[in-house]
Amino acid sequence: MLTINIPSSELFIPATNEFVMVEGKSLSLEHSLVSVSKWESKWHKPFFGNEPKTQEQVVDYIRCMTLTKNVDPSVYFGLTPENIKAIEQYIDDPMTATTFSSDKNKPNKPNAFAKNKKIITSELIYYWMIAYEVPMECQKWHLNRLLTLIRVLEIKNQPSKKMSKKDLYDRNRKLNAARRNAIGTTG
What we know:
Elements: E1 2-6, E2 9-13, E3 18-22, E4 25-29, H1 33-43, H2 55-65, H3 81-92, H4 122-131, H5 143-156, H6 165-183
Helix pairs in contact: 1-2, 1-4
């Protein structure tokens, strides 16, 4: 969970041509599957799509991340560049020590699952949770941590690859040579 402090500020509202005082607020935020699901249900587009988000959509996602109750909607207009940077860093944080050798330079993000450029939506992630029997309370975890768990389950549930006869013979030859060498025999 991330806690940010939005300072009190005076904002200009062009529609009414007046200044309004916005009281500061401390917000608790969580980047989770629940947040993504709320955002997608409002905007009717995938959160992890290639299309860039508008400023309104970014602020609305922060609203969807908010765990603090009864927040005046005008508070979000007081977000500072430092608040936005802290939120972006929090969203990008892997939240786990697990790494994957196949993508050392890539973070554990939904596009790590995207094979053939498939669109990733919250419903697909819920499907993965159900398919791998991940408890529903994990939908409230930091999303990168949940996706890492799903990816680990995907890897661990893959059938083991059978060795070809040539590979099997090569492996056995090396093992036998190592054993002969260890006990000092020739055969």
